[in-house]
Design a protein that fits this description.
Elements lengths: L1 E4 L14 H13 L7 E6 L11 E6 L3 H9 L8 E7 L8 H10 L10 E2 L4 E2 L5 H10 L1 H8 L17 H20 L7 E6 L5 H17 L7 E7 L2 H10 L7 E5 L6 H4 L6 E7 L9 E5 L2 E11 L1 H11 L6 H11 L1 H7 L7 H14 L1 E8 L7 E3 L2 E2 L4 H4 L5 E4 L2 H10 L3 E11 L1 E2 L13 E3 L2 E3 L2 E2 H10 L2 E7 L9 E7 L2
Parallel strand pairs: 1-2, 2-4, 3-13, 7-8, 7-10, 8-9, 10-17, 18-21
Antiparallel strand pairs: 3-4, 5-12, 6-12, 11-12, 11-16, 12-13, 14-15, 17-23, 19-20, 22-23
Length: 498
């Protein structure tokens, strides 16, 4: 049996976590069970997100490769060569009966007996899970969610606001742009229209502060650049975009707002190719679909997931709707396909009001969990990270250390690669987000997925984005967000390599 402690920072200092009793319970429970300890590995994480998709203790099957299965068959072992990973959330361990939860998790390793779980989907890669349908619904129907919760979505962020909103940061960016434009103007090479693009507009405060400061500096320094400015705001959510537009209505003549898919911005913004002097992105990449990959003992695995509602939650939700638990997944699937408004109209006998359909949405989201298993990734070259980017891009990062599990950040990579061609040769892509900047960070703790209000959050694989940007002739760097001390947010900067 292998035991891996990832939350090493929680084992030091005056408030150090005592993992001794937990590990002793693991050893005793495993010893008393029928599971072959040689095929069990234990991973202890500190799951930082209080709302997440994991049970406090759960078991993952490590599916054997075709070679291992064939070898087991030759040796007469049949299907007994499967291995298992026992996942323990140390943060929640003090609030549960560890021994009882361990017994539950290890009692049925192959999920052969009914567990009460009501599944919403079959096994598949993380980026294709229905958790991203929930995520999309959140941004499409955000006004209804905010009405039901009584608070705006930004209040769910750490500190209640985005790290990107800062006057000093805006001033610094604007003055750098002025220097570039002054040089181009001196060489008669400055375009008539000066394009700035913001993706992920939030409530518009960032754009308002930036544009107000741009206008003030333009007048103070006598540049006359504001007259030529074209500020484009792009977002997936029409509700968010409309609210942001209202916040910067006094700059309406210099503003355009576009609804777009963040993973394919050029579909909407193709006219901007090679024109944007600044692409400003904030808290977008961590909200895009991602797979995960694992390296264990030199072998690669793809993390497959399937979403489910725990038995007690399904019973509670079903009781409120007057249906048995096994009918709840069907209602949730219809909710994701139709949205709460159409669902309430289609099933008035179940939902007397629109907010009753929103209540199903919120209850299902709160209860939603992900079951996981590791499937062999035997042909990395055949795996696609993003359109046109093969899985071989992952190999140098996966080989930086031994056993590891990391995000592929498929949606973030797709967005990044599709945005680069929009940049002017002297343009800069600036992105504030939750970036892993060193592969070793994955070994030090849990990096998602977590739940922020009604949306999904994952840390983003910075080394992968950096490597892919380098292949395309861009210098990509990371630095701590300079204008807020102690923030987890990092700043990615990408520009054409000189």
């Amino acid at each position: 049996m292998i035991i891996e402690l990832r939350a090493t920072d929680k084992l030091r200092g005056p408030k150090a976590l005592d993992v001794g009793p937990i590990l002793a319970a693991v050893v005793q429970t495993a010893r008393d069970g029928s599971l072959d300890l040689a095929r069990l590995r234990v991973v202890c994480d500190w799951v930082q997100y209080k709302q997440n998709f994991r049970e406090s203790i759960d078991l993952r099957t490590i599916v054997p490769s075709a070679f291992e299965t064939a070898r087991a068959d030759r040796n007469g072992a049949g299907g007994t060569c499967a291995s298992y990973e026992l996942a323990i959330d140390l943060r929640r361990s003090g609030a549960i009966d560890v021994s009882a939860e361990l017994t539950r998790a290890l009692a049925d390793p192959d999920r052969s007996a009914p567990s009460g779980r009501q599944y919403l989907e079959d096994w598949g890669p993380g980026a294709a899970s229905c958790i991203w349908d929930f995520n999309a619904l959140y941004w499409k129907a955000l006004a209804l969610w905010e009405q039901a919760t009584g608070r705006g979505y930004e209040q769910a962020l750490p500190g209640g606001e985005s790290d990107a909103r800062n006057l000093a940061a805006a001033r610094e960016l604007i003055l750098k742009l002025f220097a570039i434009w002054d040089d181009l103007a001196a060489r008669r090479a400055l375009p008539e229209e000066l394009h700035i693009l913001e993706l992920g507009v939030g409530n518009g405060n960032q754009a308002r502060i930036w544009l107000d400061e741009f206008l003030r500096l333009d007048r103070e320094l006598g540049k006359d650049y504001y007259r030529r400015l074209h500020y484009l705001m792009g977002d997936y959510s029409p509700h968010v975009l409309e609210r942001a537009r209202a916040n910067v209505s006094h700059h309406a003549e210099r503003l355009s707002c576009l609804t777009l898919d963040a993973t394919r911005p050029s579909d909407t913004l193709g006219f901007l190719r090679y024109k944007a002097f600044l692409v400003y992105i904030s808290n977008v990449y961590d909200n895009l679909p991602t797979d995960e990959v694992v390296r264990l003992g030199g072998h690669l695995f793809h993390v497959q997931v399937r979403a489910y509602l725990p038995g007690p939650a399904a019973e509670r939700i079903g009781e409120g709707l007057g249906v048995p638990p096994d009918q709840v997944p069907g209602l949730v699937t219809r909710l994701l396909r139709l949205g709460p408004e159409v669902l309430a109209e289609a099933l008035p006998e179940r939902f007397s009001t629109l907010l009753a359909a929103v209540a199903l949405w919120r209850d299902a989201w709160e209860a939603l969990r992900l079951e996981e298993r590791y499937l062999p990734l035997e042909e990395l070259d055949a795996y696609e990270v993003a359109p046109g980017i093969g899985g071989e891009a992952l190999l140098p990062i996966l080989e930086t250390e031994g056993d590891t599990r990391m995000h592929v950040s498929n949606g973030a990579v797709a967005s990044f690669v599709d945005t680069l061609p929009l940049l002017h040769p002297l343009g800069v892509l600036l992105c504030h987000d939750l970036f892993v900047t060193d592969p070793h960070q994955y070994a030090g703790g849990f990096k998602g997925p977590g739940k922020y209000d009604g949306s999904v959050v994952n840390w983003v694989n910075g080394p992968l984005i950096q490597a892919i940007g380098g292949r395309r002739g861009f210098d990509v760097g990371f630095a701590p967000f300079a204008h807020r001390v102690g923030a987890n947010v990092m700043t990615l900067t990408a520009s054409v390599r000189e």
